[in-house]
Amino acid sequence: MDITVIDVPERGRFEVRAGDRCLGFASYHVDGDVMTLPHTEVDPSLGGRGLGTALVRGVLAAARERQLHVLPYCSFIRHYLHEHPEEIDLVTEDDRPTFGLATADH
User: Fold this and answer.
1) What is the third-level CATH fold of 3-99?
2) Is the pLDDT of residue 35 over 60?
3) Alpha carbons 106 and 97: distance in angstroms, whole number
4) Number of neighbouring beta carbons within 10 Å of residue 40
């Protein structure tokens, strides 16, 4: 399955796709230099295939490329950040305690 992650700004979300089929999405809102990430969803019938991880990786890469900080309200994204502490710098030090990420720093 050839997977891509694309930004769909008119819908306020990134989508993980196989061809033209949307398999999941991460909603977002950008205000200034902050990207708020409230929700991520992947087709439950496709669980365990790494689609959510690929989606979050793509979202965080886009935030980094755009020089945005993130507010990871979505629990799946917070879990990803715990598992990938090299990405924790995308959350400002002041915001990390709010999301339980204060100890995820290396």
Assistant:
1) Aminopeptidase (3.40.630)
2) yes
3) 15
4) 23
